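so my prof wants the structure for this chain in the tokens format not the other one, which i didnt know existed until like an hour ago. anyway here's the sequence
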Amino acid sequence: MFSKVLVANRGEIAIRVFRTLREMGIASVAVYSEADRDALFVAHADEAYLIGPGPATESYLKADTVIEVARRAGAEAIHPGYGFLAENAAFAAACAEAGITFIGPPPSAIDAMGSKIGARALMKDAGVPIVPGVTDPVHTVDDARGIAEDIGYPIAVKAAAGGGGKGFRVALTPADLEDAFEGARREAEKFFADTIVYLERYLPEPRHVEIQILADTHGDCVWLGERDCSVQRRHQKLVEETPSPVVSEDLRRRMGEASVRAAKAVGYASAGTLEYLVSGEEFFFLEMNTRIQVEHTVTEMVTGMDLIREMIRIAAGEPLGISQDDVRPRGHAFECRINAEDAANRFLPAPAEITAYREPSGPGVRVDSGVRAGSVIAEIYDPMVAKLIVWDTDRETARRRMLRALGEYVVEGPATLIPFHRWLLELPEFIAGGACHAEVARLADAPTPIPAAASPATAIPGDPAPDAEPQVVRTVTAEVDGRRFAVRLSIPQSHAGGGAGPAVPQKRKRDRSGGGHHGGAAPEAVVTPMQGTVLRVLVAEGQEVAQGTVLCIVEAMKMENEVLAHQPGTVHQLSVAEGDAVQAGQVIAIVS
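here's what i got, hopefully its the right format
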């Protein structure tokens, strides 16, 4: 077994790995960027080393630097977490060349599953069902048109090297194909430095279900049940649960057995996840994630296993300690991703300093986080604040436990998804086991206030006028005849000051046009709703546009965000170009 392991990651996943290392008696090493000097994860490690400036390309993605620090620290192995270098076959190979163990699958398996096109062909040969489509690269829009006619619409255009919803576009009709094709290629180049895309049939309302597997270096492999990840916005997961409310015992078994075949077909060894689209009793291979997943927590809750520990044991050459018959999941678990995003404003990122922070606790509640009061959710990294996980004996009691835990969670400073999760978990469709695609899409497509019923702890009857000053809610206590009451007061933001008690932004009416107009600017002005970088400008000076026309695309916190015209008119004073850095509220154009 290893004596010292470096964790090539940050935030909550770094802390998650450090905790298991400490339990195993293994010394831990952190690496951090200049932006993360004071981050909580740095203090959790036994040793910590600065590796570069804030941007990931200058720090966490610098493979040579990470390996050099591992050598300097005397670490025998590197755990990559997820994201950054986790699915980088070249990094895994470089670790081996340096005599350092990569805690993950062999580079050949990462390579085999890293290309969506190649993986589809491999899975087809292994007897794993795939969605109808092509396994060859599609190079031009004209080629795509011919293939799409053969497959049939709607069509999904997907990056061969994609993942996490990046490089994924849908063409519902032939008229949509060119935009979808170009959009997928643009994202593929930006996020994966690879413009290759392929086409497959788009399944409009499938469930997104994945199977967790563990495989060792001795040829043994087991599957640990499924996770349902169907609640998503823009193909980014929001809520995960196990078991899936729509998967039968027979379908679960067939998916599990197919996943073992898939892992063995590529010589896999480590923890890994096979993702599928499920329609009725049919399932189709989507991709394999050759790393630990964000949502591995719910599998741990129902199986009682520590998947990080199993990864470390496998990397050290130890055999699996369990057989398939030993896997007996129990109860039901949910995970809610607590991201710094404003669900009422199209899930826009909300980077900010956390001014107050308190995590829920109690029976069956787990929080994987990497923050505290004073932590800063930076725009250059993923917007995740924490993962809230609960377990109980069945789905309904677990749902109620999650609602209780969400009600106890306090995060002040950035907007978070806590109000969204409370609203979602009380939707009749969710309670019945539905994926709530339409409801979530409605929020993702346009500024839409979360209904008051979603957040009973913070909602106050009566909504301010559309142009009224934003309100905050303060909770104070009073005693009347010896009985204690909690009273919620709605106060204008300018008068809220720094008094005691949590302040929660009051729900207010928003412009539903989806545009970028802010009340502080001229009525004709379109402004950026967040700080970020302009990826693409889609209009020209003097161009006539309709309401809802995309003017430009701004990247913030690893997400692409469309800035829309809030009214029809002509574009004047266009003041941004591709590559420009913009600030929240900056005027980019006048539409009049």
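also thought this was worth mentioning. The domain at 4-103 is CATH 3.40.50.20 (Rossmann fold).
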